[in-house]
Amino acid sequence: VQLVESGGGSVQPGGSLKLTCEASGGDISDRVLGWFRQAPGKEREGVACIRSSPRRGPTRSYAAVPKGLFTISSDIAKSTLFLQMDNLPYEGTAPYYCGDPCGDSVGASGWHYWGQGTQVTVSS
User: Fold this and answer.
1) Which of 25, 54, 72, 77 has its CA 20 to 30 A from that of 4?
2) Bridge-partner residues for 35, per DSSP?
């Protein structure tokens, strides 16, 4: 599966962005994919994960540490993941990556594949 992230940019503190991840080469149904971020010189942080089940609907998991308001969603037909980010603090600045599979407990480890990332910068 190839993952391509987009939607990053610059926002002021408290602002919002919506990231998109296009997954090609495989069906995302019943697989757990997610988002993590890793700023230069810092540890990787899991943000959110989702299992997209056509029968049962989505199952979402969120990491406790990153501040801000995050909502993960997906479109199975388009093999696409989304990450809505609201109320972003300065600490939200980082490249954000779409990963497959989701890291262990939405944490730092266990992510096997990811895309090139999309940069999010929070500044005034």
Assistant:
1) 54
2) 48, 98
